[in-house]
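@channel sequence for tomorrow's demo:
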Amino acid sequence: MTAPNNIPIGWAHCSLADIVTLNPKNEANAEQVAGFVPMALAPTSYHGTLHFEEKLWGEIKKSYTNFADGDVIFAKVTPCFENGKASIVRGLPNSIGAGSSEFYVLRPASKNISSTLIFAIIKSQPFMQQGAQNMTGAVGLRRVPRTFVEAFPIVLPPAAEQKVIADKLDTLLAKVENSKARLERIPETLKRFRQSVLAAAVSGRLTEEWRKQHGIEYGSWGVQAALDLCKKVQSGSTPKNNPFDQNGTIPFLKVYNIVNQEIDFEYRPQFITEEVHNTKLKRSIGYPGDVLMNIVGPPLGKVAILPDSYTEWNLNQAITLFRPDPKELLPNFLYYVLCEGSMVRDVTHDLKGTVGQVNISLTQCREAKIPRPSLPEQTEIVRRVDQLFAYADRIEQQVNQALARVNNLTHSILAKAFRGELTEQWREDNPELISGENSASALLERIKAERAEKAPVKRRKRSA
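structure tokens (generated this afternoon):
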């Protein structure tokens, strides 16, 4: 059933200010225990729990935003607003509380206005998007204006239908959030999977069956120092006199250019001149196929292979390059050995550095123990790791796509709720609960009348 103005029968247009009191004050004994909610304790998910600290009401009532059980609170400041910090207030000591001055509080103007409905409104995509677009203030301290909140247009369902909508939203969105929680756990599972693949690769377990098929004994594996298996193991240097603004053409790498175990030179690229590259920084020249690892952290264990996007590279002192001897090591095999992390773990007890920083020395890099299977087995190990990692990458991509759909599903369900689509059959079955005195228009009139009764009478000035 739809009214001529394209809203469900019994619904009414109004603004948010018509159905809530914004930022009300509580009246309570100063010695009562109350709930205190700093911004950090506010949840971001639809069914997130609002945590609180217990404090005496007298300590918090004046300097903080007041609220009570049944109110809806949400952050008005960036980025907390965009992150969706909001909640229905429930379970406070003595049913009262206060919190960050960056909260807006929406108190239902009538017992016939559902807190869940109000909460759904401020969680809806139109409110979130328009609120962010209407923010005012300086960069970093932008806030949603009070006038936007009060004037935000809504379509109000009748009181009985509000309860049905609230119940359906609780059920449907709980299922959505359960699905989201399960999906969000998968990347951590994939992370552990990749680590177990690397551990199996560098220990020989990954190719155990392959060796049996080829009649190769595990004893064929050797363990040698990195310097014995590489033509060069060398840390970089820091050029003097700031050569980065001299129109250089040689890419100069820093630790921040190693992202997700790959070189990301599009992020804050720096170049040095060929002269500096070939003279003062000659020792740290890198070539495609060299394997890099950061030696200053935290974090340690950032690894990458130099790509062929440039014919030569250079690197700073926080990075060490390993240039494998092609008769001993494949670059990709060494890359996976370093990604596995045993080298870093083996020297952790000997790490040195200043407060908040740890360093692996060049000597430790050169003496690091590297497993050395035969070159054919290294090739097989790299093939298998590549294959398994590609499989994990596909799963992760599918998970990310599913998460995007789940996030959109929340907004879709809320949109359906405010179009009346979730309760269409209920309206067909209960016409008497949405018409006449039970309609939303009648409810708005009662709220208006109740507010008029409570409004203080202005005292007339006496004439002289």
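heads up for whoever presents: The chain is about 40% helix and 20% strand.
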